[in-house]
Amino acid sequence: MLKRIFCNFKKTDFTIWIVSCLTITFAFALSKFKNVLSFIGSLIGVTSLIFNAKGNVVGQFLSVGFAIFYGIVSATFKYWGETITYLCMSLPVDIIAVISWLKHPYSKQEVKVEPLNLKKLLFAIFSAIIVTTIMYFVLKKFNTPNLLFSTISVITSWFAVVFVVMRSSYYAVAYGLNDIVLIILWSLASVKDKGYLPMVACFITFLINDVYGFINWCKMEKRQNKK
Fold first, then answer.
1. What torsion, rounded to 10 degrees, do the Cα atoms 29, 33, 34, 38 define?
2. CA atoms within 13 A on the CB side of 104
């Protein structure tokens, strides 16, 4: 079973995945105030990213699990923006993405990559404006800490999940931008509670994985179009 799941992994994939998991584990072990949920969620999240980078639908199933864990962890710090974004937006869209990827396979282990045309881009932009406007007032109502960064996180998260459903390589760019915002958000949270340091390490590894994901998806698209 495991051999079939990892059959298209190369040494680079295993190296990035293992180093990412070890980084998160060390951050958790060195943290004086341990948050087990953030640790488990981080490991699930970074594992989902390496599968997503390979275009493997397993990554989308894991993304569903990460959205649940991350939403709960965010709620503990009253980052309502992250909680609402992941549980009410990312979670259902990740489920839609699972269906989309299953319906459009290129092979048993790889999804069919689709180019991002103007029509899709315009939909992503206009829908992002609507969603972000609504979320801004919701977050403001809940007195969300670091409102500006939380709002920016909503924008980048929305573009990311929409591009994932569209099977566009630019999902990784949007997630990369979201990672930078979340590194800032959780760094601010860690100033008050060191238990959130693993979340900072988590999104640093996420950023590395998303950069790799974009590079790999560009190669996948080129290879698929050539065939």
1. -110
2. 17
